[in-house]
Every structure is written in C-alpha cells, then in structure tokens.
Design goal:
Layout: H1 2-26, E1 50-56, H2 58-61, H3 70-82, E2 86-90, H4 98-107, H5 109-117, E3 120-124, H6 131-139, H7 144-168, E4 174-178, H8 187-193, H9 198-219, E5 223-225, H10 228-232, H11 253-270
Parallel strand pairs: 1-2, 1-3, 3-4, 4-5
Length: 274
C-alpha cells in the first residue's frame, strides 16, 4: 500500500511539472475548464503619414477668407481624430476650370507624380466652366436648353480628369469630388447684385451641375461629397449668407470649417485612413 501511495505521489509531481512546462511554453493551463477567451482582435494601425492631395478652384484655394483653406482644415481634423500625421498638398488655383485642370494633368508630370504618392485625393472643380451661362442670363435669359450644353461639357471634362487620376493613383488611394452650394454668387450678395429671379435660376443651374458632378464621380468609383444640403438644407430654403464671405461667392471662416467637417467625415466613412 505504501508503495502504491509513493507511486501515486510521483505521478502527481510529474503532472504538476508537465503543467508548469505547458504554461511556460504555450501559455495554456490544462484545467478541467480550459480558458477559451481569444486574444483581443485589433487591426494594426497604418504607419507613416497620410498624404492628402487636392485639386480645384478658388473654393479649395481659400479665396475670400483670411483663414486656412478647407483642405488643410480637413487634414487637421483627420490628424486630431486618428492621431496619424497628415501631409497636405493643395494644388488648387483661383479661377481654375475643369478644362484648365485637365490640361494640367495631361502635361504636368509633377501633378501626376503627386497623384501617385497620395492616399486621399479631393477635387472641387467645375463651377468656373459655367461662367458663360451667367453672362447669357444677364444679357437676356438662359434656360436649361441654354446652360445644359455647358453642364454636360463640364461633366465630360471631369470624367476625363477622373480617368487620369484613376490611372495614376495607387490602388489603395481613394478619390472624393466635392459639389457646390451654388456655382455662382449666393445669399444676400447674389440677391442684391442681380435681377429678381437670379437666386432661383442659379439654384437650378447648381442642382443640375451637382447631379452631373455626382453621377460622373459615381461612374469613376469616386465619392461625391454634397455641400448643397449643409449650406442650404436639403430643400434649398436655408439662407447660406452666414457661411459666405463678403463677395457672396466663397465660404467665410464658418463656411470653410463646415466644408472641412463634411469632407473629413466622408473620408472616414470611406475607410481611407488605413
């Protein structure tokens, strides 16, 4: 009997030693109720800075506002929210048309190199292509049959721009196209500078232009970012004057901050932060 007890004692010791070895080597406890809680599943954070690139007109360039442009503010918001450094390159220019930008992308290797280095690409372009329609409206009238050819031509140029961007960008890069609250002057300035009926007419041109812009973006697998509703409400009845600079054509500090908030939210929803 004593011999049996001794054998059992040695067996117990061996079991305890084996258990200790398992814990040290594999972190596994051989208990009756084996722990099955998996390690926390985390997605490794992207390393290195996020490269944010913008092309566009005076809205993106920050004209009319003694403040940081909306692209830089978008980068600042993304950096604060994610903790990831953001490098912002703004290649916009006052008065830029889609025709101008298309020509630049076709001839400037520097621009295409920047596209290839970018993680997120934002475009605000097309309003200045419609300037002749406003001249026609002021001179006499310009109903849809008058301005629609210019809207369609702008859409064709935007499609060509997005094709170049898609060809030159990295597969992981995402593209955003920002629409307009008004392609011309708006608010109190717009109402005061032009004849009665101007605000309704410019609103219709803007809606048609935005439809073309967003449809073109969708076809190119880019994300259209709506600014019409944030500035004027979904039904267009909200007065945008508090968000506009003194020229009635560009966003003021509050308007620029609003655009940055909307664009940053779109970038986050698209999952463009790595």
């Amino acid at each position: 009997m004593r011999r049996l007890v001794a054998v059992l004692g040695w067996v117990s010791v061996l079991v305890l030693v084996a258990a200790a070895v398992l814990v040290r080597l594999h972190g596994v406890e051989p208990t009756a109720a084996h722990r099955s809680t998996p390690p926390s599943a985390t997605t490794p954070a992207a390393t290195g800075p996020l490269h944010l690139l913008g092309f566009g007109d005076s809205v993106m360039a920050g004209a009319g506002c003694d403040c940081d442009d909306f692209l830089r503010r978008t980068g600042d918001l993304l950096e604060r929210r994610t903790g990831r450094a953001v490098v912002t390159v703004n290649d916009s220019a006052n008065g830029e048309t889609a025709a101008d930008l298309l020509g630049d992308l076709r001839t400037d290797d520097g621009f295409t190199a920047e596209i290839g280095a970018a993680d997120v690409i934002v475009l605000t372009i097309g309003a200045n292509d419609l300037g002749p329609a406003l001249d026609d409206w002021v001179g006499d009238a310009c109903e849809r049959s008058c301005y629609d050819p210019e809207v369609r031509a702008m859409g064709s140029r935007l499609s060509a721009i997005l094709a170049i961007v898609d060809r030159e960008k990295r597969a992981s890069a995402t593209v955003f196209v920002v629409s307009y609250w008004n392609v011309f002057r708006d608010g109190d300035v717009g109402a005061g500078n032009y004849d009665r009926g101007y605000l309704a007419w410019s609103d219709q041109v803007t809606r048609d232009a935005n439809t073309t812009i967003c449809r073109t973006a969708d076809l190119a697998d880019a994300t259209c970012v709506d600014l019409y509703a944030p500035f004027k409400g979904a039904d267009g009845t909200k007065d945008p004057t508090p968000l506009l600079a003194d020229d009635g054509d560009h966003p003021n500090d509050a308007g620029t901050a609003l655009i940055a908030t909307v664009v940053a939210a779109a970038v986050e929803r698209r999952g463009s932060l790595g």
